[in-house]
UniProtKB/TrEMBL annotation:
Keywords carried by this UniProt record: Stress response
Key word Transcription regulation present: no
Family, as annotated: Belongs to the small heat shock protein (HSP20) family.
Originating species: Cellvibrio fontiphilus
Cross-referenced InterPro entries: A-crystallin/Hsp20_dom (IPR002068), ACD_IbpA/B (IPR037913), HSP20-like_chaperone (IPR008978)
Name of the protein: Hsp20 family protein
Length: 164
């Protein structure tokens, strides 16, 4: 894995230090991040996403999905019946795990379902109406509706125009 030096970003980008810290921490944790269980993140529609995790060997009752602020945590605790088995070859990893996903602002978990050893978590970005861009109509003001309130400046301009 490559290591990137983000120190030039700290020197030249004022106010973006939080972003640089996130990038720096991502490059460090990616090396230590376990690859179990494998997962996909796909775009299923406009502002709709799906996380699919391969959790073969786990029962639906052993899986736990939790959302806390902008963190999605998927975990599984394997029950103790695996200790009674004697394997000649164990290629299916059925160990307990915890996987965390950082969700963007306004992304909400819509549903989750377990099918054929795959856990599907559907997400959607729902932007509140107050944050959506809105169009402001531009009105046309006609001369009939235009009213001018005279003050001392308009009186002085009228005197200059009549003298010329």
């Amino acid at each position: 894995m490559r290591n990137f030096d983000f120190s030039p970003l700290y020197r030249s980008a004022i106010g973006f230090d939080r972003m640089a810290n996130l990038l720096d921490s991502l490059s460090r944790t990616e090396q230590n991040q376990p690859s179990y269980p494998p997962y996909n993140i796909e775009l299923t529609g406009e502002d709709k996403y799906r996380i699919t995790m391969a959790v073969a060997g786990f029962d639906q009752s052993e899986l736990n999905i939790e959302v806390n602020q902008n963190n999605l945590t998927v975990s599984a605790n394997k029950t103790g019946d695996e200790q009674q088995r004697t394997y000649l070859h164990q290629g299916i990893a059925a160990r307990s795990f915890e996987r965390r996903f950082q969700l963007a602002d306004h992304v909400q978990v819509q549903s989750a379902h377990y099918e054929n050893g795959l856990l599907h978590i559907d997400l959607q970005r729902i932007i509140p109406e107050s944050m959506k861009p809105r169009s402001i109509p531009i009105g046309i003001q006609t001369a009939e509706k235009l009213t001018v309130v005279p003050n001392e400046n308009t009186a002085a301009i009228n005197d200059q125009v009549s003298a010329a």
